[in-house]
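Data deposition worksheet. Section B asks for the primary sequence of the deposited chain exactly as it was used as input, without tags or linkers unless they were present during the calculation. Section C holds the resulting structure in token form. Section D is free text for depositor observations; keep each observation to a single sentence. Incomplete worksheets are returned to the depositor.
Section A, Depositor: J.P.
Section B:
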Amino acid sequence: MRADTMLAWMSEIGSGRIRDLRNHIAWLARTANRNPGKSASAHWLRDVSALGHAEVDWERGRWAIAPAVATLIPAGDGTVVLAGRRPLDFVDQLEAEFAVSIVEPPIKDPARLPTPATVYIQTESLAELGSALNTIGVTYVGCAAQGIAGRLPQMRLGEPAGPPAWGTPVEHLVAGTEHGIGFVRGAPDGDGLCRFAVNGRQQYRYRAGGDWLRTDHALGIWWALAEQKEQAIRWRRVREANGDDIGTLFVDQGAPLPPLQARALVLCSGVPTQFGNTARTAIYTNIPWSVADLVAQSVRQFVSVID
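Section C:
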């Protein structure tokens, strides 16, 4: 799949319905002799959102391209990565003015679709770079990863809601070392996260005592993990730079991070989320300890440091 072509098309269209966009993604993948599964386009959109290229509102079924920005990579010696709007000739304009490096993200899982190439710019003067980028419609925003992590709201459950209708097939979340993280048939014996379909769309409710509360997929899972005191985030130190420890963050598969948390981590490197099939973890690289700690706190976790 020509992911950069899809990003260019989205940049020209600007916004639209998620359902239509997923159809376009699947069609473009088939032109490259790929036959994506039903979830592949959704995974692709989540990756593109984490990379800062688009905003995706799953509840309302809408997407919108993000403005073109350049964000500083933590401990990257003056390297910035581009995010947001990227028309077809955009990179050519950049290469005419700056020292540009284009990196194709690695694809380790054949079931996932490739994401757009990562575009880096190296500079010795961020002030001069910001001024020059502004003339071609790109805004320099400093270190977005640190900025997003510092403003992450503490997660909370939603408003009260009715339980699943009588006779509706329900699944509930199980989490633990023995079972991993996943949904199984039936309602929970006590408090916990449930999901069920309404008009073909998954709905999520958290049962707490006698109350049922609205939530979504990611927030509901992290709330359940916190209530069960299950730890799902680990960090390994790799190096020290500018007084901050830099490392690799591992998140258990089955516990997808909310969009802002994922974006804070991905923009530390400009590389989309990678997955380790052996340990069944999502992997984020070049993560400062300070960012890892803030992300974990926002989902009611603490970071386990591993050797």
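Section D:
The mean pLDDT is 91.
Residues 235 and 249 are 4 Å apart (CA to CA).
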